[in-house]
Amino acid sequence: MSFIRFEIVATVIELGSFTATAEKLNMTQSAVSHAVASLESEWGVSLLIRDRKKGITLTDVGQKILPHIREVLKRMEVINQEIALVTNLETGIIRVGTFASASSCLLPKLLAKFQKKHPNIEFKFFEGTYEEITKWLKSGIIDIGFVVKDDSTQDFDVVPLIKDEMVVAYHPDHRFQLKETIDMHELIDESFIMPTGMYQSHVEALFKEANIEPTILFEVHDCTTIANMVQEGLGVTIGPELFLKTQQNIKVSKLTIKNSREVALACQSIANASPAVKEFVTTAQHVFQQ
Asked: pTM, whole model, 2 decimals?
């Protein structure tokens, strides 16, 4: 059985288009269609539903088979990389899941270190929420992902990288501007922008520990929107230092009560990962744990 047909099916689902798949794999569209049709004919099942309005989706059996197709492709990638190591011809691709602050604050330093030593390894990045990254890990869409260590990451091999502390963020002209550390009780009368997304539980835990209720003026899901509102002086917020310290026209201060999220790399199985992924993990440990 030709593994190229597996790659074609996986790419069609990823891109949602026969035309885009043909362009990416340097094939004709008819060749892509023929490859999918021949695989369906050989197995005697339909894998894809082609709908002009909804686009291309998986049939029920296609949904069951796709994870296995991805696993076969992953195993082939490992074989190719192992052969490449023996012949001293380094090759491979790493599919990385990442969230916004990890993309801007962690990835550049890690990639700079990694690519100096392994310039021929390619990367493909998938940016999303914590929940999307764990879903991509389980389904095999990505090889490794930046995550925040919690109950949802217990099924993976997890390598802790950094502690990302919760801090207070405010407009540069705010009365907090000269304070390096802020007591939680100083936030009681402040117009507070409550995050409802990825780090809400950390913020709520801080107020609970201080035994106070914030004066919530806005509840906002998107991190960038929260930062923009703080920039406009609409209120103060609490969030991860990794993200907030990169935002323009915002100042941050430490809190007297400590709370942090642990940013880590997660993989289905490091022992069974490709040589490139294993080296990526090792490099990350050297960069962030020293």
From this structure: 0.66
